[in-house]
Amino acid sequence: MPDDIPQTTCDPIELAVRAVLGSMSGDLSVTEATLLSELEALGREVSRAKSEIAALSVDDITASHIPAATDELDAVVAHTATATNEILDACEVLEGLQPDLAAEGAAALSGAVTRIYEACSFQDITGQRISKVVNALKAIEGRVAAVSERFGGLPAAMAAPAGATARTEGEALANGPQLPATASSQAEIDRLLASFD
Amino acid sequence: MPMDKTTPVLIVDDYKTMLRIIRNLLKQLEFENVEEATDGQEALSKLRAGSFGLVISDWNMAPMTGLDLLKEVRADARLKALPFIMITAESKTENVVAAKQAGVSNYIVKPFNAETLRDKIEKVMAHA
Q1: What angle do CA A43, A49, A53 make, to 5 degrees?
Q2: So where are chain A's domains?
Q3: Residues A53-82: pLDDT tens digits?
Q4: Which residues of A touch B (CB under 8 A)?
Q5: Could you tell me which CATH class the domain B9-126 is placed in?
Q6: How many whole angstroms from its chain centre is CA B57?
């Protein structure tokens, strides 16, 4: 068995390499020697990867980088909500002026305010999209910590996401907004609903 | 058939801003009797305690989603015929199919416009 593979910890890959190497003895053919060389290289690569994973500053990722990123994204949601509510405040003031306007002006004002209300729903969509990004970041955080713990023997700062918990159909299907390229339009949804009739 | 604008409407969304937008759009449609809930559980409590003629609900809420609220409504003897419109960003076919199978009256995908809202309300009220 080669001595240049560190003996620190053994994972299944490393154990397999060691087992194969240990089974080789006596005169080796060229093919076997090549295989031996490749296996030694593989063993060194596994060992190096483990060392690098162990050296990752997981604490920085889990304690600083990802929380900072999620805080920033939360701030984006909060600021857009504040701005949207300011816009809605202004719209409601404008609507209050409608009774004082001539019919044509009142209709024009109403139409414009309606369009602003419609446009303001961006805040809901934006918030849901950002929530998806935050959840993705948290999943990455959990995986990084789990990999580090697995290979580096360091305590994970945050456990990997919980496994299967009982979820309702509503929760399981709640994926948030689709990207425009893949989202169904209202017309497509109407056709789908009509197909049930 | 004209819409009955006196119909009490419950709107359900966990985004307060969205509740405000829908309420204002309903006000433009001359619906003045509008109440709000911020999740399915609160909505269900209000529905069981009150007398509503229409529910307009988001899907993605906790602790009870809009789909779960819809199922509870359809399973409730007193509420099962209540018109129920889902307004949601969930636009996948599987979501629409699940909502339809659960008994949704109509389905609006966000972002939506006032005309779509008016059209869907008219349709569900006509069948109520």
Answers
A1: 150
A2: 12-55, 58-164
A3: 777 666 777 777 888 888 889 888 889 999
A4: 81, 84-85, 88, 91-92, 95, 110, 113-114, 117-118, 120-125, 127-128, 168-171, 173-178, 183-186, 189, 192-193, 196
A5: alpha beta
A6: 4
